Amino acid sequence: MDNTRLDDLTLVHDLGADTPLPTAADLDPVRQRLVAGITRQRTSRRRSRIALGGTTIGVAAAAAAVVAFSFVGGDPPAPSTATGQATAPPVTDPVRLLAAAAKTARAQTGQTPRPDQFVYTRTGDRETWFSVDGKHDSLMRRAGRDTPVPGCRGGVEAVVKGDDVVPGQFQPCEVRPAYRSDLPTTTEAMITYLADNASGEPGDINARGKDILGLATESMLPPATRAALYEAAAQIPGLTVIPSTQDGAGRPGVGITWTQPEGDPGSVGVVMVFDPTTHQFLGTNFDSMREPVIVDQPGQRP
Amino acid sequence: MTATDAEIIERSRREPESFAEIFDRHAPHIHRYLARRLGREAADDAVAETFLAAFDKRERYDRGRPDARPWLYGIATNVAGGHRRAEARRFGARPHPVDAHDHADRVAADVTARSLRAQLTAALGALSPGDRDVLLLIAWEQLAYEEVASALDIPVGTVRSRLNRARRLVREALGATSTTDTIEELLNNGQHQAR
């Protein structure tokens, strides 16, 4: 054959010629993943695990202290099977319910807190005031006993022993803002974020559900982030609606749950409970979630 | 004046968000490169992986290089290496035997072109990874020898020898499997096809 006429480089080049350059729009989901990755590294959190209904849930270390529900040893009310409590027509499709919840979340004006303010939460006898930007000294109070949570400034935080700050001692830290303006605000980016920060193996539906639950209950989310979280939740396979249930405080609502792992007799399915009319997230069947409130000072009650 | 890539990467050490500008400048080409190698489906993941790896390595970026693209091609090539299964699917397909009776009359040209494509992809798949990397960066991505050397962190002389070997192997593979008289017929997409 005639090698001088054979331009193998051209042949190879032509093989790649029908692959077009992608547009910026094509690349946007990938770009969001990069930005989420950059943001995550900046605010990356140490992870701890708490027991949850016989399995574990990965939560941010600081947030573990804020966790607004106590699953272990609790006495959760059985979901009610009564019907007719809801005034609105019952929603039976989980995707539609979550879409409605997302719409409600997105419509909330949601005050944007100042960095020097605090997110106040109250669960039972436990109160927390966590720094909005994570850099100010926060406070936990349980049964009247105060525990300081030093802010992370310049990469270090004061060392706490027992309930007291050790004078002059510091340790490396990561900034953990209580107001999660660092999380994605679009569904797609949120799905990616959840996948990248999954506490379970890929495909572990139960772990994914609990990751979502953790974010929904343990931190203060901007409205668009909360909406994106519900929309991402709608993508979990095996979701079912419990038309009439109640939250931990006994408030009636419509619930969503997902396929639970089998074989653990101690495990009770977690139900995310939404207001039947407004579709606002109320909490879980284990606990009611008090809307976090912004205050100016640690120790200040709204 | 527009900032160079080196300046943006430098800035991203203090302002990590600004690294997204590097993505905006180069992601289209890096994506096309990875889509050519791995297929469209795997490319999105591989591009995200490439830029996150680049972000992690930005502290070690050689600030003497204003253009970051060869550097990104190098990282993308490593990422592609990690997706070798996807690449094997793409390049590993053996040429499909052409049933002349079924196709020759109607779509001879098309079939010939497809047959060439299959032979070529098989030839690329048979190359050693190092040879293939060099050939594709030059033939597809139009990198200069020096840029390939920089991207893959190998001497320019190695780029030359790998390219020569890869080209020879591709020519041999095509020559050995071609059933047509000359490669020109294939190149011309069957226009000179004898009926």
TrEMBL record, chain A:
Lineage: superkingdom: Bacteria
Alphabetically ordered keywords of this record: Membrane, Transmembrane, Transmembrane helix
Keyword Membrane: yes
Transmembrane intervals: 50-72
NCBIfam families, per the entry: CU044_5270_fam (NF038083)
Name of this protein: Uncharacterized protein
Species this protein is from: Actinokineospora auranticolor
Taxonomy of the source species: Bacteria, Bacillati, Actinomycetota, Actinomycetes, Pseudonocardiales
From TrEMBL, chain B:
CDD domains named in the record: Sigma70_r4
Gene3D superfamilies: 1.10.1740.10, Winged helix-like DNA-binding domain superfamily/Winged helix DNA-binding domain
Keyword line: Sigma factor, Transcription, Transcription regulation
RNA polymerase sigma factor 70 region 4 type domain mapped to chain residues: 118-168
Molecular function in Gene Ontology: DNA binding; sigma factor activity
Alphabetical GO biological process terms: DNA-templated transcription initiation
The keyword Transcription appears for this protein: yes
Pfam families: Sigma70_r2, Sigma70_r4_2
Residues covered by the RNA polymerase sigma-70 region domain: 23-89
Keyword Transcription: yes
InterPro entries: RNA_pol_sigma-70-like, RNA_pol_sigma-70_dom, RNA_pol_sigma70_r2, RNA_pol_sigma70_r4_t2, RNA_pol_sigma_r2, RNA_pol_sigma_r3/r4-like, WH-like_DNA-bd_sf
Family the UniProt entry places it in: Belongs to the sigma-70 factor family. ECF subfamily.
Record protein name field: RNA polymerase sigma-70 factor (ECF subfamily)
Native source species: Actinokineospora auranticolor
Taxonomy of the source species: Bacteria, Bacillati, Actinomycetota, Actinomycetes, Pseudonocardiales
